Amino acid sequence: MAAAPEQPSPARVVVLVSGSGTNLQALLDASAERGPAYGAEVVAVGADRTGIEGLRRAERAGLPTFVHRVADYDSRPDWDLALTESVAAHQPDLVVSAGFMKIVGADFLARFGGRLINTHPALLPSFPGAHGVREALAHGVKVTGCTVHFVDEDVDAGPIIAQAPVVVHEGDDEATLHERIKDAERALLVDVVGRLARDGYRIEGRKVLIP
């Protein structure tokens, strides 16, 4: 009897968090529920601060964690290098910035450029930066949404992988709108990470092509 074909090893994913870690939890749940068919597995979680729920989620899942606070380093490049080395120690295929509130630097991008994924609560290139939900609402848009993109040296400007629309309701405030965007964001991130891991991808200019 012929041997069954070997199941490909899941893509190794390191997730970076700064807060509650709901996007991290969505990835953990997808991997647990779908098993090898999902194609990706979180292997470590890093943070820029201690005492956050994101780290507790990782610990409950039995994952190794590491923390690098900017204040503990003499310079931002020193912090960036330390973060790079900690992530690299886990040999990731993909790195996910899941609510990670720090901008990585040259060392990190040199090592993980084209593999570092970020989410943003607006339809880029509209409303980049820290206040995308507030600015979209103030602008009076009828539809906003979320974007999953690769990170480059500019803020929220890397190649777009996927987007999901979210309708703005009459009477929405920043909090209510952001909650619905977060729901869409979690689903989109889970889908994107799985597709990239299972199918592979290439980046041509500003386009991300997934077979």
TrEMBL record:
Ranges for domain Formyl transferase N-terminal: 12-193
Keywords: Purine biosynthesis, Transferase
GO biological process: 'de novo' IMP biosynthetic process
Membrane-spanning ranges: none
Any one Pfam family match given in the protein's UniProt record, by short name: Formyl_trans_N
Residues involved in (6R)-10-formyltetrahydrofolate binding: 76, 101-104, 118
Active site: 120
Sites where the protein binds N(1)-(5-phospho-beta-D-ribosyl)glycinamide: 21-23
Record-annotated site: Raises pKa of active site His: 156
EC number: 2.1.2.2
InterPro entries: Formyl_transf_N, Formyl_transf_N_sf, GART, GART_AS
GO CC terms: cytosol
Cited function: Catalyzes the transfer of a formyl group from 10-formyltetrahydrofolate to 5-phospho-ribosyl-glycinamide (GAR), producing 5-phospho-ribosyl-N-formylglycinamide (FGAR) and tetrahydrofolate.
Family statement drawn from the similarity comment of this UniProt entry: Belongs to the GART family.
Protein name per Swiss-Prot or TrEMBL: Phosphoribosylglycinamide formyltransferase
Organism: Streptomyces radicis
Source taxonomy: Bacteria, Bacillati, Actinomycetota, Actinomycetes, Kitasatosporales
